[in-house]
Design brief:
157 residues, alpha/beta, 30% helix
Amino acid sequence: MVVYFSATGSTKAVAGYIAETLGADTFELTPQEPYLAADLDYNNSESRVCREHADPALQDVALTSTAVESWERYDTVFVGYPIWWGGSAWPVNGFVKANDFTGKTVIPFCTSASSALGQSGETLAQLAGTGDWQEGQRFPSAVTQQEVTDWVKSLGK
């Protein structure tokens, strides 16, 4: 299973490459209030992401659904997200908190223009409280399908 949140399409592309390589199902995390381009303007202190960053109470982003059909049948879950301010984009947090990862191997992946994966995977593992969270991978926005495929194959999944 490949679960992902994508604000601009970069993470969605990587999620698609992973799913295609593995023949895996996908589940897109969709905020009830979608992020528009203006919402993602990190240079505007009044943009949605800047307001949410400044006020952690706003980071509890409601999703249209956190329930993956037949969740119990997946033993490996890739969780993908863009990096926002050095961490995972907060729409992912609600999904991670709402699901039981017991017995699952979880592999985080992220996209960013320049930020590293950092502690984002460890932070999500703490939020989840269950699951075998592995070291993740950061991809640049312009990653190729071959680079993603090579990484997935290197995991032996």
